[in-house]
Amino acid sequence: MLNSIEKSRKCHGKVDCHSTSSQSSVTGSLPKRRQDLLKWNGWGYKDTEFILNEKLQVELTGTRYKLSGMVLPLLKDWMLNNFNVNLDYVRPAQPEFSAADLPSPVINKPFLEDLQTSGLEHSLDCHDRLFRAHGHTLNEIWALREGSFNRIPDLVAWPTSQVEVMQMVQLANKHNVVIIPFGGGTSVTQALECPSTETRMIISLDTSQMHKILWLDEENLTACLESGVTGKEIEQRLASRGFCLGHEPDSYEFSTLGGWVATRASGMKKNIYGNIEDLVVLVRTVTTRGLLEKSCNAPRTSSGPDLHHAILGSEGTLGVVTEVVVKIRPLPECQKYGSVVFPCFQDGVSCLREVARQRCAPASIRLVDNEQFVFGQALKPENNSLVQSFLDGIKKAYLTRWKGFDINKMCVATLVFEGTLKEVEAQEKRVYETAGKFG
Known about the structure:
four-stranded mixed beta sheet; 439 residues; alpha+beta
């Protein structure tokens, strides 16, 4: 159904989170000036990086992660062996680009005048524009570090609600201006790149300031969230109410709910929770014709085409996703982590195929090849515990001497089990029994 105005929200049997003071005061994890918090020419936070300390040992800076502040004694040798790094060669950090280094903005004056009159927050700052000119493919990061972009967004806008998105789209439609929706910026499909041949003004519509949980229905186990909320924020806020979404792509710390819908995302725990298309109940999308949404707020209907499947995976080409109703679950009673080592990658593949055939896969089962396995070992922090060192030595001796595994061929499957205690125990029993036939 196409609507030109937003419907009033009815929260029968729901907790209306939008009206609470706690929601209205919530600050999202992504600021407007992302370059103040995140690396402008790479992945992650500015305060988190690998450095060589005074003893020429690798350390991870910052305080955000379990490895932060720890010495990683094996990582330097791994880097030397795999990348042929010359530690004697040092060059200064790449300076940030100035406005003179970047394409000048294409300005549609009537549009800009109407935008300024509307009061919608926006920026022409060159650093704001550059940050939203790319995703995180190797090609895009290379262009940031060594090359240049022929075209970047001309203006960045930060709507704070669905109503403001509708205003922005109406203005863009009126003045023939291009909009590229921008969520977490973690895209690996080059969908955020501006076409070099585009002569119209290009707006990067940043949804990061739309990060509220609008309502939560504890009876029907659904919640309505704004599209700019990140995966990490979703899980933290739902957990405070005793629930979870369970969708955890590798990028979930930075990627957003709207981005998951636009890219038809998959998560590491899909075996239990499903992919994003399995979690979506309702999607609201602002198009040039108005607000697109199904008239029935239900997981499934039998009549007519499903509009969600047009929006899912559309990469922002059909409209701007503003609000999403998703299925939620109570937090699992039990969560356990495990791993299984195999003598070679093919044995690991055979095991996972058998696990899939028996339909006994846990929440997450992930096969890591030898290169990733060795890298994982190189990330182990310095261990000052004699007991732990002794146990690690026993494990290594068991695998290499007793089992006869070649350390240059072995691989590992990482496991996550979730559910009730009995469910987890049953999953562990079946998975480990199956794995025992292959490793």
